[in-house]
Design goal:
13 helices; 3-stranded parallel β-sheet; binds tryptophanyl-5'AMP; about 55% helix; about 5% strand
Length: about 325
Amino acid sequence: MLNGKKVLYSGMQSTGNLTIGNYLGALKNWVNLSDEYECFFMVANEHSITVRQDPAELRKRARALLTLYIAAGIDPEKNCLYYQSHVPAHAELAWILNCYTYMGELSRMTQYKDKSAKHADNINAGLFTYPVLMAADILLFQSDVVPVGIDQKQHLELTRDIAMRFNSIYGDVFTVPEAYIGEVGRRIMSLQEPEKKMSKSDENPNAYILMMDDKDTIIRKFKRAVTDSETCIKYSESKPGVSNLIDIYASCTGKSTAEIEKEFEGKGYGDFKLAVGETVTDVLVPIQQRFADLEKNKDYIDSVIKNNAEKASYFANKTLRKVQKKVGFPELIR
Ligand code: TYM
């Protein structure tokens, strides 16, 4: 609890441009939940270097991501938005937690298996211990709730295991967090291979919709979306392409699957794809406009970054000091 509210914590990597998967699976829920909780939204730029990055590009993307959080509706006066690399406590706690996490646990992580297969020339130790840094992020803030897409569920479960293990040795040090995974939008799939998650690192740009795509691009990509050889708009496991489009439409409009199936009864895939494309455009364009305005306001973004780094450090250091004391590190002599 912080200021009488439960704590909500989440973050995104500043690698590549965000897709509507990131938005519908996570960012949209952050905005919806932000009034109810005391919130920390972090830019995970330390996680990003587990894969090789161009330094100038990484710096630019971190700033763009933080600006996009605001453009999507996170109020920086009421919520703490900050860069992970501005709060050294993340890396310090991650080291300690590394010593309370087993190799076997980390080698079972599917994201590690996927990423090491994809970057076989750079299977670094950071890629392996990535979930421990994520656990440190969450546990530093005594977080109650962590809104994420379903692909992060396994990391959340590991975070809970690490917290409980640590607490069982040293007493109640960490709040054990719960994942918040929305009903719709929890797993937005590729538009080209709907059995695969939509990902910004996909080689085929037609597989994803970026939050910064313009209207024509969005409509074109939805028109090309892979469906099936039938004609009915029905949610079914045997129709992954159509079901994914229904999910996207449901998530953007708040309509239920049944309402959507009824709305498009007797209509063809062409009409449906166009409707999905237009709805997604209606959601994204205002965010893009706010983003463009905010980007021009350099001083404002700078002040958000400065103030929030201090605020985040203050809370993170409180937990870190407690942990250091528990494990037996001597206090500073002043
Ligand atoms: P990242 O950067 O891969 O993704 C950011 C968020 O977007 C969600 N997401 C999706 N949701 C639905 N459908 C999709 N296709 C889709 N693709 C991505 C992710 O589930 C995530 O919520 N390790 C994290 C970043 C992180 C973090 C944290 C998150 C670092 N520290 C602490 C929460 C708390 C990651 O790589 O997310």
